[in-house]
Amino acid sequence: MKNISIVVIIIILIGLVWYFVSMKKNPVAMNTVNTVQTATTTPVVPAVDKTKTVIGTSVEKRDILAYHYGIGDREILFVGGIHGGYEWNTTILAYELMDYLGSNPTDIPENIRVTIIPTLNPDGLYKVIGKEGRFTKADVSLSKETVIAGRYNANTVDLGRNFDCDWQAKGMWQTTSVSGGTAAFSEPESLAFKNYVEAHVPTASVAWYSAAGGVFSSSCGGSVSPKTKMLTDVYAKATGYKAYSTFDFYKTSGDLVNWLAKKNIPAVSVLLTTHEGIELSKNLAGVKAMFTVYSK
To answer: Fewer Cβ atoms within 10 A, N terminus or C terminus of the chain?
Structure first.
């Protein structure tokens, strides 16, 4: 009986030696076991793409940056700083939204990708801020003349009049005649935006301006499309801004969002209430309302 016990023990020891030797020779097998065990205990974290791309450069060769959040196939495009330093608060709003999305990636639906261009007119912004990159209200010039000059790019063109919808060489800003450029998309900044849009074809777009406190539908040579009207109503209801079917305070030509409408992309202009307020909470509510609509 004692001999049988010894034999059994020897067999068990041989089996254990064989097992560990085989695992050492085949670490993949051991890793597979560990992977299976880990998969049952480790929560799955959604993958989030937080990259930035240079979509073009300004007249003075400053980069025009686009920041991307989320990995979905439906892209929502936001753009600020179209009028540079004159509407510097739209760029700060863009940066603050970027901060929020970076800290709260799970707020972005799986099928949504958010792209933010915080400053389409970096040269105009530089005139007023005097620095590149992030800035605060304290960096803003208080000179009225400087702020107005910051509306235009380095060619003194109003980029908000340089797009291909009812383009004119001379446009209007309130009661002031402004340059629309030598042709639609004559400026590198508007051309960079055009190229990005045509390459990616966003599902919807919001352009931030100031100041009127409203959401304005886009159209080009016709009535507002049902999809654009829906976007206007959704954003206005969520933010508390008033909804407008058209911008009729004065005649505009070569408008960015109207060109998007010409491309059959639902788009709205969101005018912040003042030239100083950021209004992140209001616009964040609008962004989340868009997530709800476009994730379905």
So the answer is: N
Helix (H) or strand (E) holding 120: none
User: How is residue 19 annotated by DSSP?
Assistant: H
Side-chain-side CA neighbours of 46 within 13 Å: the count stands at 16
Which residue type sits at 296? K
Rounded to 5, what percent of the chain is helix, strand, coil? 45, 20, 40
CB 168, CB 126: distance < 8 Å: no
Q: Are 257 and 207 in contact (CB under 8 A)?
A: yes
Distance of alpha carbon 172 from alpha carbon 88, whole angstroms:
20
- Which phi and psi angles does 197 have, rounded to 5°? -60, -45
Phi, psi (rounded to 5 degrees) for 43: -65, 150
Q: Quick one: pLDDT band at residue 8, thresholds 50, 70, 90? A: very low
- Among 2-11, 158-167, 284-293, where is mean pLDDT lowest? 2-11
SS3 state at 293: helix
Residue 216's DSSP bridge partners are 244, 269
- Rounded to two decimals, the pTM is 0.84
d(CA 114, CA 108): 8
Q: What is the pLDDT of residue 286?
A: 98
For residue 50, the model assigns a pLDDT of 62
